[in-house]
User: What shape does this take?
Amino acid sequence: MKTIKAIMLLAGVFFLTSCSSVKVATDYDKKIDFTTYDSFAFYKPGIDAAEISDLDKKRILRAIERELVAKGMVKKTSPDLLVSIFTETTENVNIYQNNFGYGWGWNPYFWGPGGYNTVSTNVEGTLYIDLIDAEKNELVWQGLGTGILSLDMDKKEEKINEIVNKIMEKYPPERNQD
Assistant: This one.
């Protein structure tokens, strides 16, 4: 039941994010003091289960490591946090109808020059970054980022870096002063 609530919360936050090219949402355990975490390692079983190429895994892990090190964290064999990833992709089909163009046909306003339709597709990828308390073996923070993926290798790496950066901007979460 908690998982369903967390998914619903993430979905709600996801839809309320800005119109940037990367949509980001996070969820975390509000009872955790994230300032106590200062080291990390990658959680191999979780990463191995991600259904993407090994090259993309390396790109993602390098970007995550770069972001965590920039936040003052250290990669260790006995870490405070374990980092795992999960990915999803969705193919979007977009149909654009243009009522102005060449040829003859019915237009909603007059009989005359007809329009044309344009169909395009793109692949939208979602990256989940899970931070797990290594001692308790519990998920303490999750960030997800969604954006349109590119098949161009240079743009692909740039997009992965952008998605990871936008997600990790939200870590550690700001503590509310109650």
Summary: The beta strands are 22-28, 39-42, 74-75, 81-98, 104-107, 110-113, 116-133, 138-148. The mean pLDDT is 81. The chain has four helices and eight strands.
